[in-house]
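Lab notebook: predicted structure, single chain.

Context: the supervisor wants predicted structures on file for every construct in the current expression panel, including those that have not yet been purified. This is the next one on the list. No modifications to the sequence; it matches the entry in the shared construct table.
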Amino acid sequence: MTSTSPTTGAPREATEHVRRGQKEIYAALPFEQSTEESERGLIARWEGGVIRDDAGNRVWDVDAYAFLDGEAPDTVNPSLWRHSSQVAKQGLYQVTDGLYQVRGLDVANISFIEGERGVIVVDPLVSVETARASLELYREHRGDRPVTGVIYTHSHIDHFGGVKGVTTQAEVDAGEVPVVAPVGFFEHAVGENVFAGTAMARRAGYMFGAALARGPQGQVGAGIGQTNSTGTVSLIRPTVLIEKTGEELVLDGVRIVFQMTPDSEAPSEFHFYLPETKALCIAENAAATMHNLLTLRGALVRDPHSWAGYLTETLETWGREAEVMFAGHHWPAFGNAAITEHLALQRDLYSYLHDQTLRMLNQGRTGAEIAEDLTLPPALERTWHTRGYYGTLSHNVKAIYQRYMGWYDGNPAHLWEHPPVAKATRFVRDMGGADTVVDRARAAFDEGDFRWAAELLNHVVFAESDHEAARALLADTYEQLGYGAESGPWRCVYLSGAHELRHGGFGTPLASAGADIVRELTPEQIFDTIAIRVDGPRCWGESLTLDVEFAQPAQTYRLRLSNGVLTHSSRRQLDEAEAVLQLPSSSALAGLLLAGPPSADSLAAAGAEITGDASVLARLLGALDTPDPDFAIVTPE
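Prediction complete. Output recorded below exactly as produced.
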C-alpha cells in the first residue's frame, strides 16, 4: 500500500537552473518553423465540451488543455510545450478526398474512410464515449452515413477500445460491419496487460499523469497524445484477419492494400494503402515523435531493427506514389516529398539507436553509459518529429541493451545487490546519517544537480520513510526534473512522484482491462491468470486436482496445484479429479473473475455446479493472492 504520511506542499516555481536549461532549448531548436501542418484541413471543432459516460462521469474534457497558448512558461520544457500545443488541437479534419480524422478527443486519432454506401472507421479510440462523440462530429458535417466497416491497425487498446461507440456486436454478427485486423490481433489485444496488468496500470497512472492537474505546473501532455480517456472500454472480435504483406481487400467499394509489420510498435500491426487516393496509413510506426522501445508502464522490449526494416519496405513499396500519410496519432504528412523525408528520418532514427547501441555495448559499455554518451546526428537532433516527446534516447538505448544483454551489466558488484530498503539503510548509515545525506542533497539541489539530489534523497526516504525534510526536498527535486523534461511521460512520472510525496498515493486511476476484454480471454489465458496469483509459499504443502468442464464449446481442463504451482491441461486424464466444476462457457468463468472472489451466490448466478469434494475449490481460492493496485512507488510502503 502507498504511504499514509504525505508531505503537504504546493507546486514550486522553476529554479534558475531549470530556467537556464529552457533558454538553451530555445537556442538549440528551430522554433521559427511553423506549426500550421497540425491544423491543415480543419473543418470544425468539437463544441460539446465535456464528454461523459452514462453515469455522468467525466470521460474527456476538450477544454482541459486550453492553457497551451503563447510562449512556454518556465515550468515547461519549450519543446514539449510546442509539441503539446499541436497535439491538443481538436476537431474534424479533412485529410484528402473521402478521408477524414477526428483528433484531440482521446489519446489517439480516429479516421473515417468514405465508401460507396457509408464510412469505414479506422482505430476507434480508447473509450466508447469518445468514439461515439467523434462519429457524431463526423456525421454532423458529412451526413448520417452508416458504418460499413471497422479497421484495427494494431493491438493496443487506444486503437480498438471504443469500437462499440461506432458499431454494435449485433451488426458485426449479422455481417453488416466487417471488422478487419492483423493476424494475431485478438490474442495480443486480450492478453496484453492481463498477466502484469495491475502493475502496468499503476505505473501507467504515473506515465500519463492521471492524478495531476492540467496546467503549466502539472500535466501538459503525454507526447503521443494528451492523455487517455477514462470511459467504457469495449472489444469486438475481428471478422477478417490480414495475414501477409500485399494482401488486398475491397471494403465498401474501397480498395485497400496491406503491409504486415508484426513486432514493431505492437506485436500485431499493419500499414495499409489506399491506391485511389494515394493515402498511406502508417499505423503507429512513424509518429511525430521518437516512440517508445520500452514503455515506462512496462512491456516487452520492442525490436527497433525490425521496425526500421518495415519503414524501408514502406518507402520502397509506396514511397514514390503516396501523397498523404496519416496515422493513429498526431497529424498527417502532406505531399510526396514530405512523406518520404518523414519515413526516411524515422527509419534512420530507429536504425541509428539500434546499431550504435550494439556498437558501443560490444566495446564493453553498459546501457547507462551508452545512454549518456550516444548523441543523434544533427539531422535527427534538429527534426521535430524525431524528438523524444514519448520515447527518449536515454530510456530507448537502455531498452535495446536490455533486449540483447538483460538486466546484468557484467559488473560483479551488480550481480547480487541489496534490495532498495536494505541498500538505502546501509547507504544512509555509512554516509553519516539521514540529516547529513539531506544536507548534501540540498547542496546538490542548489547547484542544479537534481539527478544526484534525487538519488541521495531516495535513499533517505527508503531508509527512513517518515523523514519529512527528505520527503519534502525529494518532491521539490522531482518537480524540477519534471519541469525540464522534454518527454511528456518523463514529466508526468517526475511530477506524479512529487504529487504522491506531498499528498499521498493516488492508486490506479487507469483500468488495465475492460469487461469485454476479460470476457474474451481463452480458457488457457484465464487459468494462467489464476496461476500467477497463487501464493506459492502459502501452499507448498497443498495438493489438489480440479476438473473444469465447459458446456459450450465442450471442453475439459485439469487443474493441478502442487508445490505452489498451478498447472492446467486439456488432454484426457487417466485418473479422476477430486472435484469437477461445471460451467456453461469460458466467458462464465471470466465473469466470475470480474465479480471478485466467487461465492455460492455468484457461482449459482453463473450457472456453475460442483461435484465431488466441494472443499477443493475453496482450497484453490484460498491459495490465491490479491493484486495490489495501490502499491508504493516513491516510498517503501
